[in-house]
Design brief:
By secondary structure, this protein is mainly alpha-helical. The protein is built from two helices and no strands. It has one domain.
């Protein structure tokens, strides 16, 4: 069976990259302005960690399964 379409993993990678960039951007803004949410363990800066993780995972999937690349 020959697949001629674009892999769904490419779109998942793009979506993860966009969400990761948005969350990471918010986390860095929060870190720079010292305006953190009033929650327990706010000093761990979860948006920075999760945004960076989502962005890295999204870039991996986006590059690995990009259209025109032989998988």
């Amino acid at each position: 069976m020959h697949s001629s379409g674009i892999s769904i993993w490419f779109f998942i990678g793009v979506l993860l990259s966009v969400y990761g960039a948005l969350i990471l951007g918010y986390g860095l803004f929060e870190l720079a302005t010292h305006q953190s949410a009033n929650v327990m363990l706010a000093n761990l800066h979860a948006p920075v960690w999760w945004g960076g993780l989502l962005l890295a995972l999204g870039l991996f999937y986006g590059i690995r399964f990009r259209p025109g690349h032989n998988n």
